[in-house]
Amino acid sequence: MLGGGGFRVPLVYGALLGDRAEGRVTEVVLHDTDAARLAAVTRVLAEQAADVPDAPAVTATTDLDEALRGADFVFSAIRVGGLQGRADDERVALAEGVLGQETVGAGGIAYGLRTVPVAVDIARRVARLAPDAWVINFTNPAGLVTEAMSRHLGDRVVGICDSPVGLGRRVARVLGADPGRAFVDYVGLNHLGWLRGLRVEGRDELPRLLADPDLLGSFEEGRLFGPEWLRSLGAIPNEYLHYYYFNRETVRAYQEAELTRGAFLRDQQARFYDEMRRPDAPALATWDRTRAEREATYMAENRETAGAGEREAEDLSGGYEQVALALMRAVARDERTTLILNVRNRGTLSVLDGDAVIEVPCLVDANGAHPMAVDPLPDHATGLVCAVKAVERDVLTAAGTGSRAAAVRAFALHPLVDSVDVARRLVDGYRAVHPGLAYLR
User: Fold this and answer.
1) pLDDT at position 316, please?
2) For 24, 285, 379, 410, which has the most beta carbons within 10 A of its beta carbon?
3) Which domain holds residue 35?
4) What is the Cα Rg of the chain in Å?
5) Is residue 181 in some structural domain?
């Protein structure tokens, strides 16, 4: 697990603890560049495993090659620049009046420019030290980073995200369907997708939801976007599309907030890791308390803008760790399943080339994840997907060549950045606060 000192690592380890089937994971190696964070998370994992017989053994190292050598699966969940970097991404963007969210808009581009070179180095090392390993990419921006790694690892890197899973679960729940038995027709890019159907025993139940304003307004996306807009779209957008459809309101809310999301998490997690320096601190209880606060405040500014209220209790439990476990079991044991994943397009969406990483339902088996055939996107969605994919490609060009011009183009062509001059100032602003972007010339 790369980024093994990260705050959400115990979620993944908890999923592994719950897997008792034959062929389960027996050894976990945590890697991080920060030894103190590794020590803190290792303590949490030890308490998680205290009453679990035959729990996966955990070791920790700051040596990347040592962590990778001989691995069967590599979970990549790194954060280049830490949460201070995320806070800086938000601050620089908001000063220019544009969105600074970590995966969307200017902030997502800045994060990608910092992360892609590191992710590519990891991919090259995996190819050399663990050529048979499968890489499960948690690192944001997930689609962009997965595509960067796929240029070196092919289909042996798969990106995961819990947003489509959570959306499908909420829609199934409000329709009275079993989420485990429903097929979610979901198509797009990471954090830029639409649920277009929910089939139960061959019948699409989404039209019933769209026809009922009360039912449509009874769950998070309905409250976030409003029933009228959802009926106009004829689909349920991923929550991150709120940044696109209500951009002006969201930017204003972020500018008026006492702390940006990155700054809030930076301060909150700093308190957690500081507390964990005390040998007598209850590790698991401290982590649980911090996580509950983190989840409850997720996308708080967006919900306040929309008057959406508090998150529902069922949505506070994460979910991406279960996607990772299901993916790993399908590959390792040939337990065939269907999951929404970030994989290479391979003709699934005709408007994109075969190597473009998209987020769609996939059949997963011992040979990996295979994107399923989907209907074309409507024009409005196609326009957004093509525009954002072009931006991602410019980020990859800039990261691979050091071209400042490509970086400026990435910012300028993003739908949420409205000026070439703003794009130029963003590049200069980010280079000033991130030493890791000195390569842009």
Assistant:
1) 44
2) 410
3) 9-159
4) 21
5) no
Q: What is the pLDDT of residues 210-236, one digit of tens each?
A: 999 999 999 999 999 999 999 999 999
User: Where is the domain boundary, 159, 186, 214?
Assistant: 159
Alpha helices in 154-219 (DSSP H): 163-174, 206-210, 213-216
pLDDT tens per residue, range 321-353: 999 999 999 999 999 999 999 999 999 999 999
- CA distances to 101, 392, 412 from 425, in Å: 17, 19, 10
**Are 136 and 75 contacting, i.e. CB atoms less than 8 angstroms apart?**
yes
Residue ranges of alpha helices (H) inside 181-309 are 206-210, 213-216, 220-225, 227-233, 242-245, 247-256, 261-275, 283-296, 300-306
Per the domain annotation, does 46 fall within a domain?
Answer: yes
14 with 146, same domain: the answer is yes
Closest CA to 221 of 245, 201, 205: 245
Do 121 and 151 touch, CB atoms closer than 8 A? no
Are 271 and 152 within one domain? no
Would you call 212 helix, strand, or coil by DSSP?
Answer: coil
What's the mean pLDDT when you consider all of the chain? 94
pLDDT in tens, 343-383: 999 999 999 999 999 999 999 999 999 999 999 999 999 99
206 backbone dihedrals φ, ψ, rounded to 5°? -60, -40
